[in-house]
Design goal:
Elements (H helix, E strand, L loop, with lengths): L44 E8 L2 H9 L3 E2 L4 E3 L2 E9 H9 L3 E8 H20 L12 E3 L4 E12 L2 E10 L9 E7 L4 E5 L1 E5 L2 E6 L3 E3 L3 E8 L11 E2 L23 H14 L4 E5 L10 E8 L3 E10 H5 L3 E5 L9 E5 L2 E5 L12 H11 L4 E5 L11 E5 L17 E5 L8 E7 L7 H17 L3 H9 E6 L4 H9 L63 H12 L3 E11 L1 E4 L4 E2 L4 E2 L5 H22 L8 E3 H4 L7 H7 L4 E9 L1 E3 L4 E3 L7 H32 L1
Parallel strand pairs: 7-15, 19-21, 25-26, 25-27, 27-32, 28-31
Antiparallel strand pairs: 1-4, 1-5, 2-4, 3-4, 6-7, 7-8, 8-12, 8-13, 9-10, 9-14, 11-12, 16-24, 17-18, 18-22, 19-23, 20-21, 24-26, 28-32, 29-30, 33-34
Helix pairs in contact: 7-8, 7-14, 11-14
Bound molecules: zinc ion.
Zinc ion binds next to loops.
């Protein structure tokens, strides 16, 4: 079978004359892979940027439930993916032709960066202190194919100018078409770079490049194809070309001085409600979560040889941690298999034959426990132990394995802040919610910084006060507190919630870091259950959709809040990382890549124009520019995310619903590479993200205000 390449390298073509270039990374030739090999200890887990060998390798990873941290991208015609991997898994991938290019974050980095941030905060206290489609379009049928320059944008960040282009060829079915862009600056410097073919779900989308450094502002761009097509010359446009109002003198910001756990967030919500009584309500969302709890579990036997997994029906903290289980030899011949529970010890007495030898199998033991102690215990045969003789074993101690000691072990009440002068539904509503995904530690920092900026400045800045007069703001800082508690205390790469729907061998505690439901795949529109792509029925997958639409308390809470407040017309779902800004449609069906319906032209214009304003506001803080190639409908800028929350908010409730992926790649001028920042970067970076994206949310409030005013004006 021929494996179709979705990403194809476009080498330089003979048609173009490449001028000498003074900037590393802007040369047309592909840079060499990292010279120093990156290695991990076999059992170490890390977030690694990996250059995969081909599309088939990515497809295999996805099929086996790989934890993709970011959307795969093209580089040098290969696929670049950020994956949470053990050293053993990385070694396997490397043996199959993949190359690790960056350790984005090691498992221990999260807790170190958390501890660093808290220490620094304590020290300070002690010290008393796409626009898709808007670029020029031009076509010229010169050769076999016709090229359309769909986007050509430039911008400057940190003193460095970048250029990004998106070009479509009419030769959509030819995976080997190579497209090259040549550019010229005002002073006559020229150069070129290749574009990469982007195919999604088997359908050609366009060719594009990661932002390329330029010596100065580019004034002309031309695309040529290996089939002979040449576009007309276009003038790249400035991106995003939108600037928010300047901050007034005395504007207050920077309310975040450390990473915040769910317990910290709870305290912060309480403090804000107390401090700004006249402007804040705290809303308890209706569905309590499971809480930071798990069933207590133990192996009866040796899982490397032969064992049964025994777990409590109740959670460990409900009196089941410390319960013991053992398998004993009755010491007499011809005994039946029996199960008894006394004094917090579950005793399995194995069956014996006429010679007094024990003859029960692992399957017999699991079945006997399930038959006779179903109200207290559940047993499954350890994967690989089926049909094996059950050894005399134990006593083994059941334990929930949870490490966090300062987390309340009870159902959790998720809270929303409601900010505004008129909190009565009479003003247009804006909803900002974060941490659907547990490990995205920077995201509640964004929404809480935003909330406190609005509140603090309402007292000192007339413009902010006026915004709070005109807009009704809802903020859910942590949608998934149970998963977040687990991420802070147990396994920092936890993405999902803590509800374990697995059955059978998948309940083996060796899979404990893979359990849970992907909250942002559990909504009702364009869902896995409706046949859309980008979620999984495998309970161990990073994108597990749950047992049904809205099966989880966490997703139900977001929808319940939106439904209870029909004045909410705008929403931002804050995730990390990668620097994306997206809106519906967010999902498509695999067969034919049929997306959810496209917004109308008017609505698309609103999404895009508002996005440019918000991207401009984000850039105001430290110059971070979200790339045009990563600004647009979810389904276009790369991905199908079946059952995500923004799609339900938009299609069912009529809310303009966006997604942020905060944490943009940083340009490394020394290597000429864009580098990923990860889920739990050193606190300085997370702090920077909180500041810039809080500015983006403030601009979203202005967008809502302007939209409401325009609606009122037109009646
Ligand atoms: Zn996320």
């Amino acid at each position: 079978m021929i494996v179709r390449r979705r990403w194809t390298a476009a080498a330089t073509t003979a048609i173009l004359i490449s001028a000498a270039l003074s900037h590393p990374g802007s040369a047309a030739a592909a840079p060499a892979p990292a010279a120093t090999p990156i290695t991990l200890a076999a059992t170490e887990t890390a977030l690694v940027r990996v250059q995969l060998r081909d599309q088939a390798q990515l497809d295999r990873l996805v099929a086996t439930g790989a934890d993709l941290a970011n959307r795969p991208r093209a580089r040098d015609g290969r696929i670049l993916a950020d994956l949470v991997l053990t050293g053993a898994q990385l070694a396997d991938l490397t043996a199959q032709g993949a190359t690790a290019t960056q350790i984005v974050q090691r498992a221990g980095d999260g807790s170190r960066h958390f501890a660093d941030s808290v220490r620094a905060a304590q020290a300070r206290t002690a010290a008393g202190l796409r626009a898709p489609g808007t670029g020029q379009r031009t076509t010229a049928a010169v050769g076999v194919d016709t090229l359309a320059v769909q986007q050509a944008y430039w911008w400057t960040t940190g003193g460095q100018t970048f250029l990004q282009a998106q070009v479509a060829t009419t030769a959509t079915d030819d995976p080997d078409v190579e497209i090259t862009v040549s550019w010229r600056t005002a002073d006559g410097t020229t150069g070129s770079f290749p574009l990469y073919r982007f195919e999604d779900s088997g359908e050609y989308q366009y060719h594009y490049n990661l932002p390329q450094p330029m010596p100065s502002r580019p004034v002309q761009l031309t695309a040529t194809s290996s089939l002979g097509g040449v576009s007309r010359a276009v003038t790249p446009a400035l991106w995003p070309n939108a600037t928010p109002p300047p901050l007034p003198a005395g504007y207050q910001k920077d309310f975040i001085d450390a990473y915040l756990t769910p317990v910290d967030i709870q305290a912060r919500i309480k403090r804000l409600a107390r401090q700004y009584r006249d402007l804040v309500d705290v809303i308890d969302l209706p569905n309590k979560t499971q809480g930071y709890r798990r069933n207590a579990v133990a192996y009866l036997g040796d899982p490397a040889v032969s064992a049964v997994v025994v777990e409590s029906v109740r959670f460990g903290d409900q009196g089941m941690n410390g319960v013991q289980v053992r398998a004993v030899d009755p010491g007499r011949p011809n005994r039946p298999l029996t199960v008894g529970y006394r004094d917090r010890v579950l005793t399995v007495t194995l069956a014996t034959d006429a010679a007094g030898k024990t003859v029960s199998t692992t399957d017999d033991v699991a079945a006997a426990i399930n038959a006779r102690q179903a109200n207290r215990f559940r047993a499954t045969v350890e994967d690989g132990s089926t049909g094996l003789p059950m050894p005399v074993a134990g006593p083994a101690r059941l334990d929930d394995g949870l490490q966090g000691t300062e987390v309340p072990a009870k159902p959790w009440t998720v809270q929303a802040l409601r900010l505004g002068v008129h909190r009565d539904g009479s003003r247009v509503g804006v909803l900002a919610y974060s941490q659907e995904h547990a490990r995205e530690w920077a995201t509640p920092l964004v929404t809480l910084e935003f909330a406190e900026r609005m509140l603090a400045n309402a007292r000192t800045d007339p413009a902010t006060r006026q915004l709070l007069e005109q807009v009704d703001i809802f903020v859910i800082p942590t949608v998934n507190p149970d998963g977040a508690n687990y991420s802070f205390n147990d396994y920092n790469f936890q993405r999902k919630n803590l509800v374990n729907h697995c059955t059978g061998p998948a309940r083996d505690p060796r899979y404990r870091t893979s359990w849970g439901v992907d909250v942002n795949r559990n909504y009702t529109v364009g869902s896995y259950f409706d046949g859309y792509v980008g979620a999984s029925a495998n309970c161990l997958s990073g994108n597990y959709a749950g047992t049904a639409e809205l099966s989880e308390a966490e997703s139900g809470n977001v929808i319940a809040l939106a439904k209870a407040h029909p004045n909410i017309k705008f929403a931002m779902n804050v995730h990390s990382y990668g620097g994306y800004f997206m809106w519906p449609p967010g999902a498509y069906r695999a067969d034919g890549r049929i997306t959810l319906p496209r917004p109308s032209i008017d609505e698309s214009t609103l999404f895009l124009n508002s996005a440019r304003r918000i991207v401009g506001a984000i850039a105001q803080e430290r110059g971070t520019v979200t790339w045009p190639s990563q600004t647009g409908p979810v389904a276009d800028v790369l991905y199908s995310a079946a059952g995500n929350s923004a799609d339900q908010l938009y299609y069912e409730l009529g809310i303009f619903a966006w997604d942020f992926e905060v944490g943009n790649d940083r340009w490394n001028p020394a290597t000429g590479e864009w580098e990923g920042v990860g889920f739990q970067p050193p606190f300085d970076e997370a702090h920077g993200e909180s500041q810039e994206y809080a500015g983006g949310l403030v601009e979203l409030v202005r967008v809502a205000r302007d939209h409401a005013a325009a609606e009122a004006a037109t009646g």
